[in-house]
């Protein structure tokens, strides 16, 4: 339907009226309305409106600036509400209904009580006693803690310029959010939100003239500023040694289709590790934020070297047959401290980005042990912005990581582990995001929801809906371990799984209903001769072909569903020049694969010492002549010469970047701006920059030397880069302002 009009409002009011200014009851339910469909100037004319029904729509928030001074009752049942702070202008509300809003949490309920000072009935229940306790007793306890921190650690600057006051406010708010603890851990998000509000109120009371009494009596609760940390505050966070926060991890049920709740309370990783740029001598790590701090403490290169451990157990052979670091061949590159620079294309319209380490997290430890440096982290992927908008303009800063028996969701900006899913006895090797449709109660339409699939040693695919804190199901994809998962970018319900039984399966996982019922159907079986390690679907034709990087080569499959048979072998094998270059070694293990453009593919072989960029279209054009074709190489990029397999690469097409970690914790970054390089010259092009391992420091144990980097991921705009190591450390890098 079109936008709300005056005529429609008069038709939906009760009793009928001819003037908006006299309407008292309005029913706008089940109209499929989105937040953008509510015109603020028109609705603001409803000065006498007392009851408003917006149930059964698709509202995610209330429009900014909407003021309804007489509104007493509001029904937002069965919507998609996410941001309750947008109700802060409706301060006259006494009765509010919010049932069947999937993403509303207990923290949101507490926020509503603060934002709506007259609220007495919530979801049909009288909450007067609870509300009074939250508004007065709870708030007073928090206020005392905030004021105590101010008195002991902060004061107003001598010169009260706007800039100086802003710095004090930033540091004070950052400190109270980290140090003020009160109430159960399930209310951590609310507590941080509330103490931030109290801290800003206190600073205003010290710096602004006191208002007349009659004005104070009628003032509303202030709208909380969006929690977005400045660069300076973020740097302080890296140097902190926060207290360990106890938590209860949710255990997954083994029964099929059994739903379970994910741990959903944001918390710091139990073992935060401070990162240290290697430009100065060692310094002591401060235990509290330091105002104006710009440099992080560092550790000399001859610090303590940790012995490499491998997690074995009953892990599949392919995941545990790495050679010792002592057997690795050395990498011959010309290093400068922290990076290696190569000449850039003169035709580049885009400068290379500059990345700095922001957080080092140790959040996959066995039994939460701070001494666990053996759990291997295998896969990471940024959440797509379709369902969860982690930043402005559709950007995302939430990354999923897996390793050991857990899957974590990390906020790259704050370094918080937002959610954690744990299955005792499992070892996760792969994960993948997708968007499926969820039916809504009352048959009022479908809504997209972002889901996460994870799989590993047990051969089971776990299906998670992180926004709802729900592990809603599982299905068996193989009797052996799963090595790789990949969703179709065009049809979010189609999932490819690769396993150690040397099969690739295509599944239709369908959508879910409001009770999380779902149905899984197997559509295709693709046979391989070895374990698949990576999948890629050509961006231009994701419905017709699948490229599979395997232990014994790179293969292409026809995946069109309208063709028979349903059990298929490879359509062609793609070979590389390195196969013939050195016959003494087997370079058929393709352990890195990704599309840089709709046509250009980046891939590498185990022990190759370089990364190939090649044309998918030109390579595929050779297929009618023969089943085995040689990739049409466009460029060769210099990389580390190492014997360690499964160090995968990643691409960022929007920025023209290829990134791959190595055996020493370094990140080789390539800014590809010119594909006209002459491959026949025989010279590999050096990296644009090699990011050194940040040498994180643990209290009393010295620096941790660089471990192999198993996986890397970049968000679409390359604001963040995440690298997973072989020693239970996830490193978050951030693009600096100079980029």
TrEMBL record:
Domain Leucine-rich repeat and WD repeat-containing protein 1 WD: 350-733
Record SUPFAM superfamilies: L domain-like, WD40 repeat-like
Listed GO CC annotations: centrosome; chromosome, telomeric region; kinetochore; nuclear origin of replication recognition complex
InterPro entries noted in UniProt: Leu-rich_rpt, LRR_dom_sf, LRR_LRWD1_dom, LRWD1, WD40/YVTN_repeat-like_dom_sf, WD40_repeat_CS, WD40_repeat_dom_sf, WD40_rpt
Region (Disordered): 247-336
Ranges of residues in domain Leucine-rich repeat and WD repeat-containing protein 1 LRR: 7-198
UniProt repeat feature WD, residue ranges: 475-509
Entry's Gene Ontology molecular function annotations: chromatin binding
Protein location: Chromosome, Centromere, Kinetochore; Chromosome, Telomere; Cytoplasm, Cytoskeleton, Microtubule organizing center, Centrosome; Nucleus
Entry's Gene Ontology BP terms: chromatin organization; DNA replication; establishment of protein localization to chromatin
Alphabetic keyword roster: Centromere, Chromatin regulator, Chromosome, Cytoplasm, Cytoskeleton, DNA replication, Kinetochore, Leucine-rich repeat, Nucleus, Repeat, Telomere, WD repeat
Compositional bias (Basic and acidic residues): 303-312
Family: Belongs to the LRWD1 family.
Name of protein: Leucine-rich repeat and WD repeat-containing protein 1
Origin species: Oncorhynchus mykiss
């Amino acid at each position: 339907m079109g936008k709300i009009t005056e005529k429609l409002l008069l038709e939906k009011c009760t009793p009928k009226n001819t003037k908006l200014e006299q309407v008292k009851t309005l029913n706008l339910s089940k109209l499929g309305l989105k937040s953008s469909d509510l015109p603020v100037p028109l609705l603001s004319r409803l000065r006498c409106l007392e009851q408003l029904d917006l149930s059964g729509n698709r509202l995610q928030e209330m429009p900014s600036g909407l003021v309804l001074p007489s509104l007493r009752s509001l029904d937002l049942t069965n919507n998609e509400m996410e941001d309750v702070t947008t109700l802060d202008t409706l301060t006259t509300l006494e009765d509010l209904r919010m049932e069947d809003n999937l993403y509303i949490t207990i923290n949101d309920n507490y926020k509503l009580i603060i934002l709506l000072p007259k609220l007495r009935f919530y979801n049909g229940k009288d909450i007067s006693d609870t509300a009074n306790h939250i508004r007065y007793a709870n708030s007073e306890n928090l206020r005392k803690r905030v004021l105590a921190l101010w008195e002991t650690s902060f004061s107003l600057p001598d010169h009260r310029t706007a800039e100086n006051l802003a710095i004090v406010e930033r540091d004070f708010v950052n400190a109270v959010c980290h140090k003020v603890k009160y109430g159960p851990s399930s209310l951590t998000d609310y507590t941080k939100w509330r103490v931030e509000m109290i801290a800003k109120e206190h600073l205003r009371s010290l710096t602004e003239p006191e208002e007349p009494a009659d004005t104070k009596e009628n003032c509303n609760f202030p709208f909380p500023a969006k929690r977005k940390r400045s660069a300076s505050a973020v740097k302080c966070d890296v140097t902190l040694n926060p207290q360990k926060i106890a938590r209860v991890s949710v255990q997954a049920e083994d029964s099929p289709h059994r739903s379970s709740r994910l741990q959903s309370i944001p918390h710091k990783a139990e073992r935060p590790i401070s990162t240290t740029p290697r430009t100065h001598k060692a310094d002591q790590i401060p235990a509290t934020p330091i105002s104006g701090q710009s440099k992080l403490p560092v550790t000399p290169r001859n610090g303590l070297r940790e012995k490499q451990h491998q997690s074995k157990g009953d892990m599949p052979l392919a995941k545990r047959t790495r050679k010792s670091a002592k057997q690795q061949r050395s990498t011959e590159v010309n290093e400068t401290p922290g990076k290696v620079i190569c000449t850039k294309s003169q035709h580049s319209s885009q400068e290379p980005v500059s990345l700095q380490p922001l957080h080092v997290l140790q959040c996959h430890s066995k039994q939460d042990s701070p001494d666990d440096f053996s759990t291997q982290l295998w896969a990471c992927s940024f959440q797509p912005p379709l369902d969860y908008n982690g930043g402005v303009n559709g950007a995302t800063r939430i990354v999923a990581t897996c390793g050991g028996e857990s899957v974590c969701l990390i906020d790259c900006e704050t370094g918080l582990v937002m959610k954690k899913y744990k299955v005792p006895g499992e070892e996760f090797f792969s994960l993948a995001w997708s968007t499926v449709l969820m039916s809504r109660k009352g048959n009022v339409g479908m809504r997209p929801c972002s889901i996460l699939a994870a799989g590993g040693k047990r051969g089971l695919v776990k299906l998670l809906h992180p926004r709802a804190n729900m592990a809603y199901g599982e299905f068996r994809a193989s009797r052996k371990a799963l090595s790789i998962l990949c969703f179709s970018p065009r049809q979010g319900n189609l999932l490819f799984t690769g396993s150690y039984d040397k099969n690739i399966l295509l599944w239709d996982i369908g959508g879910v209903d409001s009770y999380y019922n779902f149905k899984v159907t197997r559509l295709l079986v693709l046979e391989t001769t070895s374990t698949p390690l990576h999948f890629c679907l050509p961006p231009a034709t994701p419905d017709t072909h699948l490229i599979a990087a395997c232990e014994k080569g790179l293969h292409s499959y026809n995946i069109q569903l309208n063709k028979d048979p349903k059990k298929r072998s490879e359509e062609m094998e793609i070979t590389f020049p390195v196969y013939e270059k050195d016959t003494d070694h087997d370079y058929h293990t393709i352990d890195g694969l990704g599309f840089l453009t709709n046509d250009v593919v980046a891939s590498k072989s185990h022990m190759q010492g370089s990364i190939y960029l090649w044309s998918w279209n030109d390579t595929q054009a050779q297929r009618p002549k023969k089943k085995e074709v040689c990739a049409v190489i466009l460029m060769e990029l210099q990389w580390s010469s190492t014997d360690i397999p499964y160090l995968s690469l990643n691409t960022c097409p929007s920025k023209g970047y290829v990134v791959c970690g190595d055996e020493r914790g370094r990140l080789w970054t390539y800014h590809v701006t010119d594909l006209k390089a002459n491959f026949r010259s025989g010279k590999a092009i050096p990296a644009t920059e090699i990011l050194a391992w940040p040498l994180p420091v643990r209290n009393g144990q010295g620096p941790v030397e660089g471990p192999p980097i198993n996986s890397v991921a970049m968000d679409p705009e390359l604001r963040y880069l995440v690298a997973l190591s072989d020693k239970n450390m996830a490193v978050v890098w951030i693009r600096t302002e100079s980029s």
